[in-house]
Amino acid sequence: MAASAVYILDMKGKVIIARNYRGDVPMSVVDHFARHVQESEEVDMKPIVVMDVATFLYIKTNNLYIMATTQRNANAAVVLLFLYRLVDVLASYFKEVEEESIRDNFVITYELMDEMMDFGYPQISEAKILREYITQEAHKLEAQRPPMAVTNAVSWRSEGIKHRKNEIFLDVVEKLNLLVSANGTVLRSEILGSLQMRSYLSGMPELKLGLNDKLLMESSGRRTGKGRAVEMEDIKFHQCVRLARFENDRTISFIPPDGEFELMSYRLNTQVKPLIWIEAMVEPHSHSRIEYMIKAKSQFKQRSTANNVEITIPVPPDADTPTFKASVGTAKYAPERDAIVWTIKQFHGGKEYLMRAHFGLPSITHGEDGGAARVEKPPVSVKFEIPYFTVSGIQVRYLKIIEKSGYQALPWVRYITQNGDYQLRMS
Amino acid sequence: MSNLSIEHKKGEVNELKASLRNPAVERDPEKRREVVKRVIAYMTLGIDVSRLFTEMIMATSSKDLVVKKMVYLYICNYASTNPELSLLAINTLQKDCRDEDPITRGLALRSFCSLRLPNIVEYLQKPVEDGLVDPSAYVRKTAAMGCLKLHNLAPQLVLESGLVGRVRQALYDRDTAVIASAICALEEIEGGTSKVEKQLVHHLLNRIREFNEWAQVVVLGLVARYSPAVPAETFDIMNLLEERLKHSNAAVVLATTKVFLNLTQDFPTVHQQVYARLRTPLATLVHGGSVEQGYATLKHIALLAQRAPAVFAEEHKLFFARFNEPSYVKLVKLEILTAVATARNVGEIVGEVAEYVTDVDVAVSRAAVGVIGVLGARVSSAARTVADQLVALLNIGIPHVSSEAVVAIKTLLRRHPHLLATQHAPAGGGSGGGSGGGSSLAAAIGSFTRFAVDEPAARCSLLWMLGEHGEQIGEAPYVLEQMIGEYEDEPSAAVRLELLSATVKLLLKRPAEMQAMAGRLLEAATADTRSTEVHDRAIFYYRLLQHDVSAAKRVLTAPVQLPDVFVEERASEWQDKLFEEFNSLTVIYGMPSDRFVKPALSANAPARKVADEMASASGRAARAQAGAAAQGNGSCTGRAADGMGHAEEAAEEEEGEDEDEEEGEEESDDDDDEGDGGDGAQPATRAGGGCNGTAGASASLVDLLGDLSMPAAAPPPPLPPARLVLTPAVVLDSATFQAQWGATGGSCSWSLPFASAVEPQPVVAALGAHDVKCMAFGTVGAAHKFYFYAQAQPLGAEPGALFLVELVLDMGARAARATLKSAAVNALPAFAEHLKRLVQQTIEPRL
Known about the structure:
heterodimer; B: 43 helices; transport (chain B); membrane (chain B); TBP_dom_sf (chain B); protein transport (chain B); ARM-like (chain B)
């Protein structure tokens, strides 16, 4: 692995702050990167490039580049992930990670960069732990507590945490990725699920989480009378979860870190019925006008409702004078995206809505003068949010909290299904 | 920050200096912190505040930890510009290393080791040693890393001081962070070459859950180098690590992947099962995390997919690109889709890839067309569909797509020439032949003029098809006629060469239609002053035709035997190497680390470094002495013309090697070469051997060169060569070798064709058995390169003549080339012959 130096740069590639860890790559190589940033188009930039004597690995966030250089055959995954962790940690310190906040907090940023990586090897990347001995209030002149958890067996949680009210929040969030071909066949559909927790519990609580996991239900011999069982395909856990326990009896048991974290994520490759189905009929009359008829259909149970549905339908860039007629919601022309955006605040299950649009087209098109005609066909994309519903059917059966002081804690569970990368190609 | 304000700030540096010296500030910790903070702020802005060094060092005595951190940061930043003044900081640093607060001790030790000054090395050893046995784990882990930093500064000191042994003890520390730091340090110090002990691996694996995520990656990296003694142990380790594949950190998953792949290398069936087991976690990484992460993972999948295409074949839909993905992701996905295509899924894949042809990004669009062609060539059952698809693309009206489609059709036809025959439209194919039926390949090619294909690569491909399959393409002569008419306006030499080949080939197939225009072309081409190569090729064709048309026919239109695997389809010879370096930048770049890691820094490959240096040194030598070498050939082998060609080739290749960063481009060049080189150059040499009598002009060419280089090798001593006996007792180090190679003037070379692939090791062994010692060898591109040396048995008191050899076994051209050098010029030819025999015996044992 071993990064040589880490930089935070603005969009023009100018250094805001940098830390040289190994001194084997001259800090001035960053000029190559700046030139590279300015010369290449955004889309084309690979996140890993080799220039001159060094390899540059970088990520982008909020108009910043977070970049690492190395001269060795580094582990790309480690370096890229580390950069993301650095952003996470900075974000937990000063909310928005942007040029201004970094300039305002450069002392802390230096301290964090120093503590998180030594000689190019990542060290500690848990914001919670770092917070214990690098604080904004460290600027009070008092003796520092030694970093207990840095070298603790439970490296993600310190002893002696106290909350007045012991609560834990669990959000089950599922995102549906969908790709439908122009002729209406589903090319790919996958569910990316995530269990996000916010833990405000005192002491060292032991948590046990029960899901309607298919393998578990079968192994415990329980026939799923009501509700179905879900077979999760690929599960990833936060490091606090005892993986061996899960392997043995599919119990998810753990001591949670304090505050926000992602407990687990999973992926399901099963074919699901597309929750919102779009049919687009386009009638182009070249040189004069183009007409759209869009049919949107909700294919989930009637008792559920999709909120803030936003359907984006691409139109030719030279279209003009739009007129719309929508049976529900509002349709707008978004010229900067060359698209119609049809928004429906509340889309109940089992309904079907219609929207018609009409555009004028110029009588002379650029494409026929011998120039490159615009031929790419962007897909229709849909955004939505369905609360109290998981598309996979996953359910939390219990969440037990055991702490030796014996306090009563309240678990709160929410479900939500959102669109992921939801695209339907147009013919 | 504008320039103006930077100027302004510079004035303030003096102010800061005054403040730091102000006793009032020194007494008030709050004020001092503010001043120090401003210094660091200026440093961050890139303003040079190194003038404050003395004042800042005084501030180290502060009890304020934040001030300490800032001052240490400052010192580390400016130490290299103030090496002498830095010594002033040592006292405080030493003191802080003994502070009662572990955080301070750790901070001081970390900063102390990061100063990177040679003159402080002597002060470092003690704090590092103390740190390794510190009661606080925080300090111990910093000390382990400090040992590595010290090693970077003064390797000798670390090795002699026994520090390495102490770090090794830290591998069994009770704290996992210390263990991880120790592993990092040892792996880097020893270059990852030390043997991994069973005891250690078990110790680490049993505790793996206690390590933090980064430390797990470090541990897994070490375990990946371990080879278990018995199969049972392998499976135990895999069972233990299986759960790591569920870790949310992608780096841990990839590191585990590497362990699995390495462990099962010797169990083919299990190895395949491992691929299947890894499929799901890797698939999640592709779309689960960030785009960058997905890209890195896809690159790894691309490598795995080459090894085990079947495993990913069922998951091909996973690699369908999304509209809004960055181009670099789409391109890797195309690469993977090509690899995983099988007869079963190829239909779907072709259909999907066709969607990308209209991508906004030209690079993706081009790649998509190329992939369609390759899929058709690779999966026979799809060839027909692909042909139709490509013909449709010709008509799409986007210039670069049409161009790529022409190239793709060529790719397809090379593998499946029958497509043309079965699809041939009813005879005639008159002027409107192609316009209606877009389904006929022949008609489509014949109606080429309708598409404005002006990219050289596309034109070359088109010409190759016209020449190779002209008898089946009705309109071929008309297309050629038009292009011949535009000959003078054709800027690309490659296209003109291809035009020559195509015209001559078609002339032999359809003489009646072609004769007049072929004459015009040869006339124009022999008068071509823009490119010597075109000119020479035209003369060659002219003479060949003049000499004997039937011989020309035999040579130029001989039926081609389709090889099982084309060069571009063969797995990269780097594949194994890439596999060894799994989970590193190697996989991302698709080339071994020694190609992009600066040799001076790849501490773990000193041998390779020597080889690299020698390659470049000899490259220079070869260029400088190309003329002399060519002359040497003449006297040595008596085949001047042939030798010339090889010498030139060798020189060219050296150049290629020096600037071989652009692998992709090179490959596409190769592709073109095959178009013309394969059909033109190769028969040319064959024919050249056949028609001795006619080579009047080239004979005079040889004379000319002979005259020129005469003075270079002025006194060819007429002494009879002494009988050559080599001594087994010859030792030479690489520095001497290089010096000698550069200094020695007398050289000669020969070349030798061979048929089957050769491994480098047997060659080294075989020659070694005959007292020709190997200095270094390596594989560069498709060639093995060796450096040998040998010494003749001493005659009396005089030491025997020393011979230096550079041998290149070119797998692409299937030719062995040797360049020999020796100060003893008269002994050289004998040794050259001796070596040639040896090499021949080795690479062609049957002869």
